[in-house]
From TrEMBL:
Keyword entries, A-Z: DNA-binding, Transcription, Transcription regulation
Protein name (database record): LysR family transcriptional regulator
Coiled coil stretches, renumbered: none
Any Pfam family matching the protein: LysR_substrate
Record family assignment: Belongs to the LysR transcriptional regulatory family.
Residue ranges occupied by any HTH lysR-type domain in the UniProt entry: 1-58
GO molecular function: DNA binding; DNA-binding transcription factor activity
InterPro entries, per the entry: LTTR, LysR_HTH_N, LysR_subst-bd, WH-like_DNA-bd_sf, WH_DNA-bd_sf
PANTHER family documented for this protein: TRANSCRIPTIONAL REGULATOR, TRANSCRIPTIONAL REGULATORY PROTEIN
Keyword Phosphoprotein assigned: no
Lineage of producing organism: Bacteria, Pseudomonadati, Pseudomonadota, Alphaproteobacteria, Hyphomicrobiales
Length: 279
């Protein structure tokens, strides 16, 4: 049985479509389809239901995915171990971080690191969810929540205070009882600062925005008060803290990498750069 066919099959299983699998693997969509058809020929199993113009796993497909998943994880672990044993500051390094934080605090120091080590190829992804380190989506993830599971090396690299901010004109011209607020929305995974804001706002929202940059834009447009991190409001004279001025909430920032890679020089040095940038 051809291992490459299994690898393409599992990429489809994990991403949910041939198009997404092709993007992850860096190949044409037709290559993914051809590889999966070859796997069906190899196994003699009907792994896919092709009704309705959309591929879905059959019961045999689900069972085969469960059987081969440990092989894929073992191959990824071997790749991580090999990467961890390669010395020096070279090769591609994937870093995942919340977009607003990456733009405001991390881009400049990471680019400086890249200039010092021109053989180091940095790939920076803006993401607030947990990137799958096991699948190689990130070598280092910067997160505001501490992961609770996985074979991961986790360290605290900083903290962020969130306060209530408004446009100076809006805050000075509007009585506190008439304040309107800018929230994340009624979502099951609302950020902690938004949960705290919901208690204060008591339903008095002018709009909802699921991104910090959009919330900042709404504040700058004098749309209301939002719970923003200090770094996003820094050096903006048009903004002012409202209320007591005390942090609404303070969140820790964590760097996360796989245990197999934690001693790799490029991982260690990059995490130190991130730590210094967030002090």
């Amino acid at each position: 049985m051809d291992w490459e066919n299994i690898r393409f099959f599992m990429a489809f299983v994990e991403t949910g479509s041939t198009a997404s699998a092709a993007r992850e693997l860096g190949v044409e969509r037709t290559t993914v389809t051809r590889r999966m058809q070859a796997l069906e020929n190899d196994t003699g199993l009907d792994l896919f239901d092709r009704c309705g113009g959309r591929l879905a796993l059959t019961a045999a497909g689900h069972n085969f995915a469960d059987a081969t998943r440990p092989m894929v994880e073992a191959a990824r672990e071997a790749a991580r171990c090999a990467a961890g044993m390669r010395p020096g500051m070279r090769g591609r390094l994937k870093i995942s971080a919340p977009p607003a934080l990456a733009k405001a605090r991390l881009i400049d120091p990471l680019l400086s690191l890249g200039r010092r080590y021109p053989e180091l190829e940095l790939q920076i992804t803006g993401e607030i969810g947990f990137a799958s380190l096991q699948r190689g989506e990130a070598d280092i993830a910067v997160r505001l929540s501490r992961p609770q599971k996985g074979d991961l090396a986790i360290s605290k690299v900083g903290s962020i205070a969130f306060r209530l901010y408004g446009h100076r004109y809006y805050a000075e011209q509007t009585s506190e009882e008439d304040y309107r607020y800018i929230g994340q929305g009624d979502v099951p995974d609302a950020m902690p600062q938004q949960v705290a804001l919901n208690r204060i706002a008591d339903g008095r929202f002018s709009c909802y925005a699921d991104d910090l940059d959009l919330q900042l834009a709404a504040v700058l447009a004098r749309g209301g008060i939002a719970a923003l991190p200090d770094f996003l409001a820094a050096n903006r004279d048009e903004l002012m803290v409202v209320g007591s001025g005390e942090p609404l909430i303070t969140r820790d920032i964590w760097s996360v990498t796989h245990n197999a890679q934690r001693h790799q020089e490029r991982i260690r040095r990059t995490i130190e750069v991130i730590r210094s940038a967030l002090r």
